[in-house]
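Why this split exists: single-chain examples teach little about how molecules sit against one another. For that reason, every record in the complexes split bundles all components of an assembly together and asks for one structure covering all of them. Below is a record exactly as it appears in the raw files.
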Amino acid sequence: MIFTLIRLELFKTYAKWRTYIGFITVGAVIPLIMWLMSYAGDNMMNAQTRSLQNDFFITGNLFNGWTISQFIMNSLWLHVPILISLVAGDQLSGEATAGTFRLVLIRPVSRLKFLNAKYLTTLLYTASLVICIAVLSIGFGLWLFGSGDLLSVESDGITILPEHVLWIRFLLAYTLAIWSMFVIASLSFFISSFVENAIGPIVITIVIIFISLIITNLPIDAVAAYKPYFFTTYFTVWKEAFNSTIDWSKIFYSCAMLGINNIFFYTATVIIFRRKDILS
Amino acid sequence: MSEIILQTENLSKQYKQRWAVRNVNLEVRRGDVFGFLGPNGAGKSTTIRMILSLIKPAEGTVELFGHNLFREREKALQNVAGIVEKPDFYLYLSAHRNMEIAGAMTLGKKPEKKKILETLASVGLEERAEDKVKTFSHGMKQRLGIAQALLCEPQLILLDEPTNGLDPQGMKEVRELIAMLSGKRGITVFLSSHLLHEVEQVATRMAIINNGRMIVQGSVDEILHASINTMFFDVEPKKKALSVLQKLNCVTAPTLTNEGITAQVAKKDIPKCIAALGSARCKIYTVRPKQSLEEYFLAVTNNEEQHR
C-alpha cells in the first residue's frame, strides 16, 4: 500500500506547476551564472589568487568547471530552501486549502501511512532539486570551462584539491547538501500541518531560517551556548567535503544533529496531523 | 430485521465550551435510504465527518460493518464511500486521474481504466474523462463526486447535502441516482439534508437532529404516522361525508373546512373510513396526512427549542 501511496503522491506533486518553479529557477540561474562567469570569471579568479601569485607559481586551469560548481553551491545554498519550501510547505496545507483531505482521508488508509507517503515524496523532491543543481552546475561547468584542480578556501588557509579526487568530493558535498536540505523540507512540512494556506509555511520557514542564521552567526559569547540547538549551525556541513583532510567525526556529528531535527519535525507533524480535525 | 451496518453510540463533539454534537445514537440498517435531517448548523456535517473519521469525537464510538472505526479504521472504512459537503478534487488533474487517486486509496492499487470509464459513463462524464476538473461546473463536480464514491463498489454511501447548489434538474437527477443506488445496486445510502421534502421523497428511515441532539429516529412512515394522525379528506359531498365520519367510533373531532374534512384517525383505521364513505356513496378524491414531514419537523424542532 505504501508504494501505491508514494506513487500517487509523486504523481500529484509532479503534476503541479509550482513543483517546476524550483527546477526552472535553477535551470535559468545556473546557465546565467555560467554565462556571466565566462565574461568576468577570469578577473574574479585573478583577484582571489593575486596574493598567492606573489609567492607561488600557479599553472594549469584553476578557473574550471569544479570551481564554478563550488561557487554556485556557495551562492545558492541560502536560496534553495525557498524553492524547497514552495513544495514542502504546500504538501499538507495545499490539500487543506483545496478541500481534498475530504476526498482522501475518508479512505481506508491510516493517516500515518498517508503522511509517510507525503513526507517521503517531499524528501524525494528535495533530493531531486539538489541533484538537478549538481548535474547542471557540474555538467555545464565542465562542458564550458573544462576540468582542473579546485582551489578551496578553508578557515585556516587555502587548499588545492587535485582533479582526480573531485568527483568523490563533490558527490560527498551534494549528499551532505541533500541531508541539510531535508531539514528545511521537514520544517516546512511540519508548518504545513497546522496552517490552511500554502503561503504561511513558506514565509514561516524562511523567517525561521534567517533568524536561526543570524543567531548562529552572531560572534557573541552569550549565544554561543545556544548555537548547538539551532539546525543552521550544522547547515553548512557540505563545506567539510572541500577541506584538505575530511573531518569525518564533525560530519557524522553534524549529520546526526540534522537527523535529530528531521526526526523532531516529523514526529511533531505526525502528532499534529493524527489529531487534526478536517474542517476545511 | 436487516443487519445494522452503521451504529454510533453517544457520539459527541465539543468545540471549546460548545457541544456541536451530543450523544447521537444512530442505527443504519443494510438497504436503508437513511435520511439525516436537521436545520443548518444542527450538527449533521460534524456527525458525518466523525463517521468518516475526518473529525475525532470527544466521546462515543462509531461502528461500521461491525468494526470499531477508531481501532480498526481500515476494515471499518473498506466498504464505505462518501461526499462531505461539496465534492472537492485536484483541480489541476483530469477527472480520470482524480478517480484513479480515489480508487487507489481504497483498493491499494490502481483501479482498471475500463472500470473508471464505466463509472464516469454512469454519471454522464465519459466524454470529459481527460479534461481537467477545474473546467467542470458545480453540477459536473457533484456527479464526479458520486462517481468517485461508486468506483470501488461500496456497500454504504454517506452523502452530505448532495443537492446543495444544484438546479432543480440536478436535484431531480440526484434523487433518481439515490433511488438507483438503493434499488438496483443495493447500496445503503445515508443522506443528510435540511430539505425536508428531499428526505420525505427518498428515505425509508430517518433521524432528526437539532442543536447537536438527536430528536427522533425511525422509519419515515412510523415517524409520520405514529405521531401524526390528523388526516385530510377531500370528499364530496362534504356535509354528508362529515356526518358519516362523525358516526364512526375510530374518528375523533371531524371538522369541516373549505377544502374538505380534517379528522384524527389512526393509520390502521383509514380503510374503515374509506369503506364507510364509499358505502354512503361519497366521492373520495384524496385521503392524506394533514401534517407533512415538514410540518412535523418544524413542530419537533420548535418544541425542542422551547425546552432548551
